[in-house]
């Protein structure tokens, strides 16, 4: 999808990953981000999600994902509960100075999502992928409903797992920068293997 704007508010949120075609629910309560949502609603409903760098939270990675507000509710305690639908990856050009506390940026987006959305089903072993998910969650001591994973279509499953798994900021950035869905799936599997091996190593040492 082509995005016909080059200036959007950007939300730096550590650990929150939005991917094209993914859905990210957000609970907004800080005044500056309430202003950000109001700005987006009065313009084109677009917000850029991006990771802050761990060494300096004010510095951001250059690649993020543009999301469109698809649902919006105002709670009684002045919170906004919104959902962002991922549209396209973007790259920061420069920051726009303005009189609000949230951040505005000039960005450039991928003209189409076709590159990221490329997926060869023949290169994806869904049973193995689901098996790794269950093993990973078990090793991490995480509890979630995994019974219906096989009913989710392959691309949606890969994107959902990338977004919800508790990876580090740098690991989530690596997922975002995957070239396509097959590459994303392979990166997820590599991170599963690394985390599991680290867990096994720790258990062996102790």
Q: What is the CATH architecture term of the largest domain? A: Roll
Rg over C-alpha atoms, rounded to the nearest angstrom = 18 Å
Mean pLDDT: 88
> Which fold does the CATH topology of the largest domain refer to?
Archaeosine Trna-guanine Transglycosylase, Chain: A, domain 4
Give the tally of β-strands: 6
Counting helices, strands and paired strands, the structural category is alpha+beta
**Share of residues in helices:** 25-40%
Shape: globular
> What is the CATH homology-level superfamily of the largest domain?
LON domain-like
Question: Spans of 5+ residues with little confidence (pLDDT < 50)?
Answer: none
Main sheet properties = 5 strands, mixed, barrel
Number of helices: 6
> What top-tier CATH class of the largest domain fits best?
Mainly Beta
Q: Number of folding domains?
A: 2
End-to-end separation in angstroms reads 51 Å
Give, in order, the helices and strands.
EEHEEEEHHHHH
- Spatial strand arrangement across the major sheet: 1-3-4-5-6
Tags for this entry?
5-stranded mixed beta barrel; Archaeosine Trna-guanine Transglycosylase, Chain: A, domain 4; 6 helices; alpha+beta; globular; 206 residues
Describe this structure as you would to a colleague.
The protein has 206 residues and is an alpha+beta fold. Helices cover 36% and strands 26% of the residues. It has helices at 31-42, 114-117, 126-140, 154-164, 169-176, 181-205, and strands at residues 7-12, 23-28, 46-50, 63-74, 80-96, 103-109. Strands 1-3-4-5-6 form a five-stranded mixed barrel. Helix 5 runs antiparallel to helix 6. The mean pLDDT is 88.
């Amino acid at each position: 999808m082509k995005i016909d704007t080059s200036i959007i508010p950007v939300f730096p949120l550590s650990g929150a990953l939005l991917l094209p075609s993914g859905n990210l629910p957000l609970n907004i309560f800080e005044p500056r981000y309430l202003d950000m949502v109001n700005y987006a609603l009065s313009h084109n409903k677009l917000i850029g999600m991006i990771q802050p760098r761990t060494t300096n939270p004010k510095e951001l990675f250059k690649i993020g994902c543009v999301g469109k507000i698809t649902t919006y509710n105002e709670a009684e305690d002045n919170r906004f509960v919104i959902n962002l639908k991922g549209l396209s990856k973007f790259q920061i050009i420069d920051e726009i100075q303005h009189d609000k506390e949230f951040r505005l940026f000039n960005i450039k987006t991928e003209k189409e999502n076709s590159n990221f959305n490329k997926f060869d089903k023949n290169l994806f072993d869904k049973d193995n992928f689901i098996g790794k998910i269950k093993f990973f969650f078990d090793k991490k001591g995480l509890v979630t409903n995994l019974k219906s994973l096989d009913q989710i279509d392959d691309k949606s499953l890969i994107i959902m797992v990338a977004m919800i798994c508790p990876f580090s900021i740098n690991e989530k950035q690596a997922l975002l920068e995957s070239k396509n869905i097959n590459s994303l799936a392979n990166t997820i599997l590599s991170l599963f293997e690394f985390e599991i091996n680290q867990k096994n190593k720790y258990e062996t040492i102790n």
